[in-house]
Write a structure and sequence with these properties.
mainly beta, 2 domains, 8-stranded mixed beta sheet, 15 strands, 9% helix, globular
């Protein structure tokens, strides 16, 4: 949705969601707009200049003059930062989601220049995973074994996302409980359904509850602290980040929940090179020829609307 100022009437440019277009196409009267979303993806609030030499009237001038995007229908690309209304007036900080890479088994590939730097590598078949093939080493950092074979939940790599107030303000230490309406108990996890699926960290063969697959082949999984599978659990509020016992924490203030999951490659990637050849690339890892596809996983907190995108790379020995 975008406001277009044509130096006259203000034009509201909006598009329907997939569900909205489906109901409109029915023509049976079921189409009725009941909800809408606003976003500010194009705004860089760092441009707010409270030290502007011309005074306070110019503090936000650059922000207000930022060109606004027209509405477009690709839900995988639009509305990354949705605005939300909060009735409470006593909030000094809002909870965030943050990728936790404090442990080796939750870290992405590190080191600039390394293959798949800053992504999680997801292997698609056992042939790619075999150490004697030279593509990956056993328990290599940032590599998630996605072939669907049995994994040891205690040692296999996985993705961890923490939620809470990431502040060092002494008035709200991590040992203080996060207020209930700020705790995320439900998460939406989106991934391209042609490429992979979301599975449990504790039971690698267990697939997360699938909500729907849209017309862009984006699958949305909804997980909660009551859905089973160990996807959502309460985080530890008894330790301070960086201190003894808190070395694996990334949230400095009060913590809510954490989301743990693994990624399994789709049957199409496992059995065929079609998608690798269609929109993938080729390269070498450890001097071995490989094919790969870069994509992302989007995680959204249902209560706060906060979301993050996590880059992943599906990998297959050529």
């Amino acid at each position: 949705m975008g406001f277009l100022d044509n130096s006259g009437d203000i034009i509201l440019d909006a598009v329907l969601t997939d569900t909205g277009r489906m109901r409109l196409a029915r023509g049976d009267g079921s189409f009725k707009i009941t909800k809408f979303a606003l976003g500010d993806d194009e705004i860089d609030y760092a441009n707010y200049n409270k030290n502007h030499t011309s005074g306070s009237a110019y503090y936000d001038l650059e922000v207000l003059q930022t060109p606004i995007l027209e509405a477009f229908t690709n839900n995988a690309s639009s509305m990354h930062s949705k605005l939300l209304s909060i009735s409470r007036t006593d909030l000094l900080y809002l909870p965030v989601l943050k990728l936790n890479e404090q442990q080796t088994i939750t870290q992405r590939v590190s080191g600039p220049g390394n293959f798949g730097y800053n992504t999680f590598l997801v292997t698609v078949d056992e042939n790619t995973e075999k150490p004697d093939n030279g593509v990956i080493a056993t328990a290599e950092q940032g590599v998630i074994l996605g072939s669907g074979t049995e994994l040891d939940p205690a040692t296999a790599n996985f993705v961890r996302v923490d939620q809470g107030l990431n502040t060092v303000a002494t008035v709200i230490p991590p040992t203080r409980a996060l207020q209930g309406d700020l705790v995320e108990n439900f998460y939406l996890v989106e991934i391209d359904n042609r490429l992979g699926k979301i599975t449990s960290k504790t039971s690698p063969s267990e697939v997360a509850p699938l909500s729907f697959i849209d017309d862009d082949n984006m699958a949305t999984y909804q997980v909660s602290n009551i859905s089973g599978g160990g996807f959502v659990i309460s985080n530890d509020n008894t330790v301070v980040k960086g201190e003894s016992g808190g070395e694996d924490q990334v949230i400095s203030g009060p913590r809510g929940t954490r989301l743990d999951f693994r990624i399994q490659a789709s049957d199409d990637l496992f059995s065929s090179d079609y998608y690798f050849d269609l929109f993938g690339s080729t390269g070498t890892k450890n001097s071995v020829a490989v094919k790969f596809i870069d994509t992302f996983i989007r995680i959204t907190g249902v209560s706060t609307g906060y979301r993050i995108d996590i880059p992943i790379r599906f990998l297959k020995k050529d």
